[in-house]
Amino acid sequence: MATFLISTMDATGHVTPARAVAKSLADRGHTVLWHGFEPYRDVIESTGARFVAATRTPSFADLPAAPEPGTRGLAAAVSALRRLMVDRMEGQLADYTAIAADTPVDAVLVDLCCLGGRAFHERTGLPWATLGISPLSAPAPDIPQFGSGRQPPRTALGRLANAATWRIGSRLMRGLTDAYADRRAANGLPPLPAGVTAFDHMLSDQLHLQASTPLLEFPRRHWPPSVRLVGPLLPPAPAPGSVALPPWWPQLRQARAVVHVTQGSVATDPELLTRPALEGLADLDALVVVTTPEPDRLGPVPANARVSGFLPHGLLLPEVHVVVTNAGYNGVKAALGAGVPVVMAPWGNDQPDVAARVTRVGAGIDLRRRTPAPRQIAEAVRRALADPELRTAAGRIRAEFATYQGGDAAAAALTELVRPGDPAARH
């Protein structure tokens, strides 16, 4: 058996996909050390992994992944990405080194924002893998630029223009690569090869586990050789009776339709989506179920609304007909994994890209607005409830997701990384 070191940042969207991987590795008899943060200790330990606290790596509370005060435009974007990835690298490298000195490890798996993973690999020579927590954005002429929300180009001319857009984007983000190169030099790592950017180092060239399936990824003429599509990596539904449910729960099955409204765990300001949705859906003959970290912040809600701080998707979504979301990757996959179409108001970051992939398959409606009007939300929800093609497309994704068993494909690929050619690694 092998010892794996997993590392994730302290955000639900980073931790959730790693849960299934850690559990599958532990179930196979491997030792799993999980470098993480205290708020996620219980989640981490529930997988069978051993929690190892981050001591030198800044948390998001210590170092917010937000633009530095006073920066605007491109400078703000560069500073936010630098704080997210580059400024944490040194602490990650120090933590991984200390962990491995105490308990020798055979390989490391990091979420793709942890640049310390590559640094640790370069310093030790240990196998390393990355975990895709957002749509695969490895540059290619036939893949739209990250964050654009566009569909793939359909013509040779379009692919040429798209390739040029990628090159321009890399030049505009040169400040991030320069900061990364400086931090590497300060830690005794070799200079970056000519033309290589910080973004190129986010994906392992040995093994990248993309938490997705073919239907939810854009087709590519040439896939990066290290990429493996390993399924949605969604957490299992809790056992019935293991979670306290609100007293109105039986109303879900009594309602003509159920609409779930969620903004995920990052952009949670209710003014962005939740309040407009509640207003727009107030007259809909449906039960509107809202989850939000601060329920009291909403104040009075329409008579058809029910509000909760948290509800397990594994129990809620089978009762839902439409999900209204800001297109967070894990939340959208959870909805589609239950065969539920989505109405999306992408907030930013990778969310426009999530929405573009969903609309390409026909399983959702992209409002293409960060804060849509109540009327726009209501019209989209009514269409989603009435259009059987949306539910059929969502059902195709659910069926494809079902062919992947938890984190088994990821665990098999990681075991093969440590023991290449060993037939037992595939089982």
Describe the structure.
The protein is built from 14 helices and 13 strands. It is of the alpha/beta class and 427 residues long. Helices cover 38% and strands 13% of the residues. 45% of the residues are buried. The chain starts with a strand and ends in a 9-residue tail after the last helix. Strand 12, helix 11 and strand 13 form a beta-alpha-beta unit. Helix 3 crosses helix 4. The strands form two sheets. Strands 3-2-1-4-5-6-7 form a seven-stranded parallel sheet, with helices on both faces. Strands 10-9-8-11-12-13 form a six-stranded parallel sheet, with helices on both faces. The radius of gyration is 22 Å and the shape is globular.
The DSSP helix count reads: 14
N-C termini distance: 13 Å
Largest sheet: 7 strands, parallel
**Strand coverage percent:** 5-15%
Radius of gyration: 22 Å
Shape: globular
Helix content: 25-40%
Average pLDDT confidence is: 94
Class by SSE composition: alpha/beta
Helix and strand pattern: EHEHEHEHEHHEEHEHEEHEHEHEHHH
In order across it, which strands form the biggest sheet? 3-2-1-4-5-6-7
Uncertain segments are none
Number of strands: 13
InterPro entries: EryCIII-like_C, Glycosyltransferase_28, UDP_glucos_trans
Protein name: Glycosyltransferase
Domain Erythromycin biosynthesis protein CIII-like C-terminal: 278-403
Pfam family, one: EryCIII-like_C
Structural key phrases:
13% strand, six-stranded parallel sheet, 38% helix, 13 strands, 427 residues, alpha/beta
